[in-house]
Amino acid sequence: MEALFVIVANYGSAALLIVTFLSCLAMPVPASLMMLTGGAFAASGDLVLATVCLSAYAGAVAGDQAGYFIGRSCAGPLERWAAGRRSRAFLLGRARAAIDDWGGPGVFLSRWLISPLGPYVNFAGGAGRMHWVRFSVWGAAGEAVWVGLYVGLGYAFAESLPAIAEFAADFNGIIASGVVAVGLWFWLRVLQKRRGRAKDAGSGVVESE
After folding, report:
1. How far apart are the two ends of the chain, measured CA to CA in Å?
2. For residue range 37-75, what is the model confidence (pLDDT) as tens digits?
3. What's the pTM value of the predicted model, to 2 decimals?
4. SS3 of 45, please?
5. Contact 81/88 with Cβ under 8 angstroms?
């Protein structure tokens, strides 16, 4: 938290724009905590609340767009990049499933509720050639919720910022664990169905003989 205070104090809203942009490209940066800190600085009068919100929102929307067009133009290299780490491959697969199952609402929810999937939904949306207008509208709406939620919490609970930051980190951890659990459940279901088909096929061969 002390390091975040120093960064926001020295660079202000520009730091928020850069960090939220990078977070939407799967870079390991503390975007949510930075927005909490920005909200706290706005509450103390060191930053302007509207500028904090607009900077964070502009960075997030720009990052979404960059991720979408990276996915659209580099589908093959993107899959090889994801295949380099099991966690990346898993998240990219879940992102594709979210888009296939939910479409626009899946993009919206991945901005703030299941934010660990957000960057990968950007890549998957572009690689899967999801309509750009649809992606942009749902993504912009979701980023408004994300920015408003975290900046608002920082602003409202500035005096209890460490406790709020810990709660936000725990909440993101719970959501990430839930995403992994659901993904594993689907994976086990797929394996079960494949074994069932293989067993049925083997029975058919035996009966024909």
Report:
1. 71
2. 999 999 989 999 999 999 999 999 999 999 999 988 887
3. 0.74
4. coil
5. yes
CA distance 196 to 209: 20
Residue type, 167: F
Phi, psi for 205 (deg, rounded to 5): -65, -45
Given the structure tokens 């990276």, which residue do they identify? 70
Identify residue 104 by its one-letter amino acid code.
G
Tell whether the torsion through CA atoms of 202, 204, 205 and 209 is positive or negative: positive
Measured in residues, the chain has a length of 209
Q: Which two tokens stand for residue 70?
A: 């990276």
Does residue 60 contact residue 147 with C-beta atoms inside 8 Å?
Answer: yes
User: Alpha carbon of 138 to those of 20, 75, 83, 125, 133: distances in Å?
Assistant: 17, 22, 28, 12, 9
**Distance separating alpha carbons of residues 29 and 47, to the nearest angstrom:** 21
